[in-house]
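Because discrete structure vocabularies remain unfamiliar, we turn briefly to a single example record, giving the amino acid sequence and backbone structure tokens:
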Amino acid sequence: MTYGSMRYYSDSEIDLLIDEIAQAAHEAIEQAAGEAARAAFLQSMEREAAAMREAANQQTEALQWRMEAERQQMEIQAARRAGRKNTMLAASIGILGGLVVGVAGTLALGSR
């Protein structure tokens, strides 16, 4: 029924319209909730991936420091071995030099 340019709706048409609007609102809410859940899940996954990358970086850094420490330890051991060798060589040269000087001195003094 219409009066002028206005149309009047029956109670059943209004109830049907309300049901359709409620259904559309319910679907929109479900879709928004699903999108929010997906966004939260993705954000959680990104945080977890960032934490895993950080842990991997820390492990890599720790491995590099360990390798550097082992390299320096090997250099120290090599320097100690070289130092011992040089000490033995210097002691041998000193003993031989002392013997040579002693023998030469004895010969020089004995021949007078």
